[in-house]
Design brief:
Keywords: Signal. The chain has about 290 residues and is mostly beta strands. The protein has strands spanning about 5-15, 30, 75-80, 95-100, 110-120, 125-130, 130-135, 145-150, 155-160, 170-180, 185-190, 195, 215, 220-225, 275-290. The protein contains no helices and 15 strands. The structure holds calcium ion.
């Protein structure tokens, strides 16, 4: 019996700013879709494979479900509560939002990095453990940020800015924490987040050591579910998929029938990041089959 394994891999390599010499480890996660039936494989991404695909049993052109690790489900728009009416007008200016996240680091499971999506009415600046790691504008399309984390205690701080002429103000974010064992946790904006109903620019409020225990709680402006808030759910960028990946294998074949020899083959790739950026995360989408 011939056993054949073909592999297609697409890797999203996320980069971020180096953090004071901290050791930033990979947190790759392999994804093997449970719904990957033979006829749902991405045949459209195949280009001259070294071994013919089993087209006799695979005549579907269905596109596999895109791999999406994060979305705005079960997340609420928040603001300071200065206007008690959700979605109502708020003062122009900067408001601060903080979330302390503590997770155990034990049994080979420690926090490594995070994927963060966010949207705002009108502008935001994102800080993680006191480091500015990104910014964004607008409520219709989410910004995406990849950041390194400390192993246990991490502080996420967002500056939300309601720009002239003011009007409604809202901020929404989802944080996907990646652990060293490949598992994840998600944290969304809700009324557990800390905030103040005034401009905090004069405070060192983005520092992880800042004491926010005297701050109040954020006020929900409504969930992201359709029709439940002024802004709804922001659009997400395209998910990582296998659309640009190619099926690959070695070129060695059996004499006579040109089939692939039984056995294991190994594949490696190296990606170098140059300049001021440092790799912090990698997400791999992998598809394979045996025949
Ligand atoms: Ca506004």
């Amino acid at each position: 019996m011939l056993h054949k394994l073909e592999v297609a891999v697409s890797i999203l390599l996320a980069t971020g700013l180096a953090v004071n010499g901290a050791v930033v480890l990979n947190c790759a996660r392999d994804v093997d879709s449970a719904n990957d039936e033979m006829c749902n494989r991405p045949v459209h991404s195949t280009t001259t494979p070294p071994i013919p695909l089993p087209t006799s049993t695979c005549n579907s052109t269905a596109t596999p479900t895109p791999y999406q690790t994060i979305n705005f489900s079960n997340t609420s728009w928040i603001w300071t509560g200065e206007n008690p009416t959700a979605g109502g007008a708020n003062p122009i200016g900067l408001r601060s939002f903080r979330k302390n996240v503590s997770t155990p680091c034990e049994n080979d499971k420690c926090a490594r990095c995070a994927t963060i999506i966010a949207a705002v009415d009108n502008d935001y600046q994102l800080y993680v453990n006191g480091l500015s790691v990104g910014n964004g504008s607008g409520w219709d399309l989410a910004g995406v940020h990849y950041v390194p984390l400390r192993e246990q205690d991490n502080v996420f701080a967002f500056a939300g800015i309601n720009v002239p002429p003011g009007g409604p103000a809202g901020f929404v974010a989802k944080i996907l924490v990646h652990y060293s064992d490949g598992s994840t946790d998600s944290i969304g904006t809700d009324e557990t987040w800390r905030t103040l109903p005034r401009d905090t620019s004069a405070l060192s409020w983005t520092s992880p050591n800042f004491d926010d225990s005297a701050w109040g709680r954020a006020k929900s402006q409504g969930p992201t579910a359709n029709g439940a808030s002024l802004w709804g759910a922001p659009k997400l960028p395209p998910a990582l998929s296998l659309a640009d990946a190619r099926w690959i294998w070695t070129s060695d074949v059996n004499v006579g029938d040109a089939t692939a020899p039984v056995g294991t083959r190994f594949f490696r790739t190296t990606h170098n990041v140059n300049g001021t950026k440092r790799a912090v995360c990698a997400t791999a989408v992998i598809d394979a089959y045996v025949s």
